[in-house]
Amino acid sequence: MSTDKKIGDVGNIGNANFPVDADGVVYHLGVKKGQLSQRILTVGDYGRAIKLRDHLFDTGKKVVTSEHRGFHIHTGEYKNVPVSIVSIGMGTPMMDFLVREGRYVTEGTMAIVRYGTCGSLRDVPVGTLAIAKECVLIRRNPDHWHADSSNQVKPYDISKAVKGDTEMVEKLTNAFTTEFNGRRQVIQGLNATADSFYSSQGRQDSNFDDHNQELIPSIIQTHPDAATLEMETFQLYHLAERSTVEPIKAAAATIILANRVSNSFLGNDEKAQLELDGGRACLEALISMKL
Ligand code: R1P
């Protein structure tokens, strides 16, 4: 490794199939073995990750932060246990990079918790916390709009459900219930991960012919326990379930930011407090896992 190479720097790549540089640094996350914990708290917003790092990591301990291709990685300790807090931005491809490249640079069983924001399919107060027991994926199918299809192809596909890790989901639910202690509702249900914030979550946008008026009713009809809509959790649960060499224990919690039934949206101050309190619950759940 050259002497001026910093964490987050990626050198020349020697492998097109799984791009890694000569030091073992993975192409998108920009870290190598020893620079990412096997316990990961992942969020979308990089500001949320910095806030959790600054307020929740043990003080007086070494904290290492790196940034590459939109992945911000903060590795420190929570109650003397090494943890990485990673912001990934938005969408399933970013979660795919985190889980695959994160798996490559860690050893042993991993525990990954996502803490995000979401829309609610149930009429619960904004600021309610939701734990995803299982997850489906909603994909827009562009063939529906192709001239050859004459509208015979459905505009959106909804996958079968994939479950989170039973133990990790239970520990996360317990940690949220303890942290919020009746101050906020904590619900469990099915999450739907969508490939768009807009069309594939049933939002109406008169600038495009999205053909999505029936989408939310059809999800609720097929999955009466559907609770939330967001954009990353399915990829985490699916890859965790398909990890072949070492186990990945995955669970996800979200702050209900938007109530899609009543059309209400949570205020910024309440959101900021819930990010911090829920982040603490996520770290408690992560360190309680025996890996
Ligand atoms: C959309 O506004 C984003 O917010 C939600 C969605 O999954 C999507 O990433 O999660 P985060 O708050 O973690 O980014």
Describe the structure concisely.
With 291 residues, this protein is of the alpha/beta class. 26% of the residues lie in helices and 28% in strands.
| Small-molecule components bound | 1-O-phosphono-alpha-D-ribofuranose
Number of domains: 1
The average pLDDT score comes to: 96
CATH class: Alpha Beta
Query: What do we call the CATH homologous superfamily?
Result: Nucleoside phosphorylase domain
* Order of strands in the sheet with most strands: 5-10-9-6-11
Q: What oligomeric state best describes the polypeptide chains here?
A: single chain
Give the low-confidence spans: none
* Continuous helix count: 6
| Spatial extent as radius of gyration | 19 Å
Helix proportion:
25-40%
The CATH architecture comes to 3-Layer(aba) Sandwich
Q: Strand count, sense and closure of the main sheet?
A: 5 strands, mixed, barrel
Question: What fold name goes in the CATH topology slot?
Answer: Rossmann fold
Overview of this structure, please?
The chain has 291 residues and is α/β, with parallel strands linked by helices. The protein has a single domain (39-288), classed as Nucleoside phosphorylase domain (Rossmann fold). It contains six helices and twelve strands. It has a five-stranded mixed beta barrel. Strand 2 (64-68) and strand 3 (71-78) form a beta hairpin. Helix 3 (166-180) crosses helix 6. The protein is globular and about 60 Å long. The site of 1-O-phosphono-alpha-D-ribofuranose has 10 residues, from strand 5. Residues 43-45, 90, 116-117, 197, 230-232 line the site of 1-O-phosphono-alpha-D-ribofuranose. Residues 40-259 form the Nucleoside phosphorylase domain.
